[in-house]
Specification:
The protein is an alpha/beta fold. The chain has a single domain, classed as TIM Barrel. It contains 19 helices and twelve strands. An eight-stranded parallel beta sheet has the order 4-11-10-9-8-7-6-5. Strand 6, helix 7 and strand 7 form a beta-alpha-beta unit. Helix 5 packs parallel to helix 6, helix 5 packs parallel to helix 16 and helix 7 packs parallel to helix 12. It comes from Vararia minispora EC-137. This is FMN-dependent dehydrogenase.
């Protein structure tokens, strides 16, 4: 792309990142230190991580059929390119839960980020702030809520200083820090739950996202093979949110010192499921603490549950199967998205998660009715290579991929030309045969 041909549009010209990489290689002989091709990227993480870290990021439930189903679902939807459309500027912006953001991509909640970089969650939080994209923090994080918020603030300050042209608004208007979501794993001590929500709100996390599909870890053979449960090992990581919580430590601090699994076993993956009866109470508490900010449920895979979430007062849902990590042999999340959108898409914000790897994947999920998508493994793979730089490189590459796809496929605006327009922009191929990993490697 000619760098002088950059008329000001609603979105940054993410596509220029490809040109930057080409010029750096051609003029300076500097090539990327790792491939951002998703298949190659996941393979190269085997060289950068020990087994515990690698399999925590990449393990799946059972035989991994649900993870495969996620990718198969994307494979069967095909984009219909358009010719002779003016796409010299693109509009990738969307408004989600009160925030206008530059692209429809959210950093999903992944725990124990210190497995991938010594700074843990501080890395993606900072990068998200720089890019103006929403960041979601996991209750199973390896940094405190407060420290992650500071890192996100730092990234946002860098963005605001370096690019005054593209500013995006928060729920109160004006130029806010990039949106922050807090992903709650809810234990059965209500005092601890309220303490976590209060800390999150005070630290600028203004959307609460309850995960409902992981009261108990799924059956993950590749983790079992190496006893991959880092919380039980000496010097555990993943307890930092609990260890920094005054209510939890007052009640259970002595037990945590004696048993490093106390936090994770009692407050995160405790094995005792909540029911819909508990949700109105939780929404009420969050609304009281946050002065009315949105509440979202993560883990929806059926129309019935999507409708129920709306009926109990949720402003949004995350359509996800936990990236295939919980229920083996389940449907791919993209398979159920159209029906969920049809039932609730005009009533709630719908975020899609599970299997996003490319700009084309983002495009397809939005065309099928999602308002935004979440990514997880992608940014973890990036930071496992070169920390902050690796995480930033993967995200800027994904943004460039989406921006370029919009350009060459003939679509200018995400919200006007793509969102919920599957009938116009996609075709379904039910007989498409998704290649096996070995077959794909030969292509």
């Amino acid at each position: 792309m000619d760098p002088s041909n950059t008329p000001k549009g609603p979105s940054p010209h993410y596509s220029l990142y490809q040109r930057e990489l080409f010029r750096r290689g051609g003029e300076e002989g500097i090539l990327p230190s790792f491939s951002i091709h998703p298949d190659e990227l996941v393979e190269s993480t085997k060289q950068t991580l020990n087994n515990r870290a690698y399999f925590y990021a990449n393990s799946n439930a059972g035989l991994g059929w649900t993870d495969r189903a996620n990718r198969e679902a994307f494979y069967r939807w095909r984009i219909v390119p358009l010719a002779l459309r003016d796409t010299s500027t693109r509009d990738l912006t969307v408004t989600i839960l009160g925030h206008k953001i530059p692209a429809p991509i959210i950093f999903g909640p992944i725990g124990i980020n210190k497995l991938y970089s010594p700074l843990g969650e501080l890395v993606p939080a900072k990068v998200a702030g720089e890019l103006g994209l929403p960041y979601c923090l996991s209750t199973a994080a390896s940094q405190s809520i407060e420290d992650v918020a500071k890192a996100n603030d730092l990234g946002a300050s860098i963005k605001n200083e370096s690019n005054s042209v593209h500013q995006y608004s928060g729920p109160n208007g004006g130029n806010a820090q990039s949106p922050r979501f807090y992903q709650l794993y809810m234990g059965h001590d209500d005092d601890v739950t309220i303490s976590l929500l209060e800390r999150a709100w005070k630290s600028g996390f203004d959307v609460c996202m309850l995960t409902t599909d992981t009261w108990q870890l799924g059956w993950r053979p590749t983790d079992i093979n190496i006893a991959n449960y880092v919380f039980y090992y000496p010097g555990p990581v993943g307890n930092e949110v609990g260890a920094s919580d005054p209510v939890f430590m007052k009640k259970d601090g002595k037990e945590l010192l004696a048993d490093s699994g106390k936090w994770i076993d009692s407050s995160v993956w405790h094995g005792k499921a909540h029911t819909w009866k508990k949700i109105p109470w939780l929404i009420q508490q969050w609304k009281r603490i946050s002065k009315g900010r949105p509440f979202v449920i993560k883990g929806i895979q059926s129309v019935a549950d999507a409708v129920k979430a709306y009926e109990v007062g949720c402003e949004g849902i995350v359509v996800t199967n936990h990236a295939g990590r919980q229920v083996d042999g389940a449907i791919g999340s993209l398979e159920v998205l159209p029906d969920i959108v049809k039932a609730t898409g005009d009533k709630m914000t719908i975020i899609f998660d599970s299997g996003i790897r490319t700009g084309a994947d983002v495009f397809k999920a939005l065309a099928l009715g999602a308002h935004a998508v979440m990514i997880g493994r992608l940014y973890v793979w990036g930071m496992s290579h070169e920390g902050e730089h690796g995480c930033r490189h993967v995200l800027k590459s994904l943004l460039a991929d989406l921006d370029i796809l919009m350009t060459v496929a003939g679509y200018r605006s995400i919200s006007q030309d793509v969102c919920n327009r599957a009938a116009d922009v996609l075709r379904y191929n039910p007989s498409g045969v998704f290649p096996s990993p070995k077959e794909h490697a030969k292509l």
